[in-house]
Amino acid sequence: MQIDLSGRTALVTGSTQGIGHAIAVGLARAGARVVVNGRGEKRVAEAVDSVRAESGGDDVTGAAGDLASDEGTAAVLAAVPEVDILVNNLGIFGSTPPLEIDDAEWRRYFEVNVLSAVRLIRAYLPGMKDRGWGRVLNLASDSAVAIPAEMIHYGMTKTSLLAVSRGFAKDAAGTGVTVNSVIAGPTHTGGVEGFVRELVGDELPWDEAQREFMVKHRPQSLLQRLIEPEEIANMVVYLASPYASATTGGAVRVDGGYVDSILP
Ligand SMILES: NC(=O)c1ccc[n+]([C@@H]2O[C@H](COP(=O)([O-])OP(=O)(O)OC[C@H]3O[C@@H](n4cnc5c(N)ncnc54)[C@H](OP(=O)(O)O)[C@@H]3O)[C@@H](O)[C@H]2O)c1
After folding, report:
1. Distance (Å, rounded) from C-alpha 95 to C-alpha 63?
2. In this predicted model, what pLDDT tens digit does every residue of 227-243 receive, in sequence order?
């Protein structure tokens, strides 16, 4: 398959690093016009440069804005009035004992991880439907279906995104617009690498360290290594492409077999 997204504009939220950055690179390599997002101008400008350098594409721009706020969202919508591919990648995570998560924290997780996506879907979906083509992809997690006790608030937001994706796919039925979620498993990002090192120490070379981490702390994984961000990006690029026209309302797994079920 030769994926050609030339002529399509893609906004990838939270793409100054990690999985979002890899998705931006993947979409730019496929020829899309890519808009990178993060909260601050400086990091967004640096990410625009690195996405250009890694993808070899020069149609990459930035739109800074905190998508958990009305003001930040308004700034991004003003900078990017129309998109064909919306990747709601932005997501925060952290562990807290369940009974210590207070109301403000529950609300913050919902605002950042769920409402940021819903606001952008509300803004961009009507245009996609009018133009008869569009892709909405929401980054979920194994934690959406295998809720970790120390991350209930995070798991709740990812389960919500599965519902959001299914619901808006129904709203877009028959229009040429597809809406899906991608269930990512444990992935090799900066934050996760630090977490692995905390648990298994600094002595082992990275390949052995991550294998030990997976076997001891994530034994459910059939991959027995962390997923590379590019592996998540590959699925997103495929789902964003015309080849994925019959996949909608779904939750597609790139979890290394982490979730122990046959159906998603
Ligand atoms: N890493 C994993 O193992 C894993 C596994 C399953 C699912 N996921 C999901 O995959 C997605 C990406 O994860 P990741 O590990 O790559 O994340 P990450 O490395 O923590 O990066 C988060 C990104 O979001 C941006 N950001 C944070 N708050 C923002 C806000 N309010 N408005 C706009 N941008 C904001 C950050 O940019 P600035 O700091 O520049 O603002 C950064 O680019 C998340 O939805 C996560 O839940 C991750």
Report:
1. 29
2. 999 999 999 999 999 99
**Which residue, judged by its Cα, is nearest atom 18 of ligand 1?**
18
Mean pLDDT of 21-42: 98
SS3 content of the chain, % helix, strand, coil (to 5): 50, 15, 35
Active-site amino acid positions: 154
Residue 174 Cα, ligand 1 centroid: separation in angstroms? 32
Query: Residues 90, 198: one domain?
Result: no
Q: Specify the pTM.
A: 0.98
Domain range for residue 203? 190-226
Candidates 51, 70, 76, 90: which one to mutate for ligand 1, based on the most atoms within 8 Å of Cβ? 90
What are the tens digits of pLDDT across the range 53-107?
999 998 999 999 999 999 999 999 999 999 999 999 999 999 899 999 999 999 9
How many domains does the chain divide into?
2
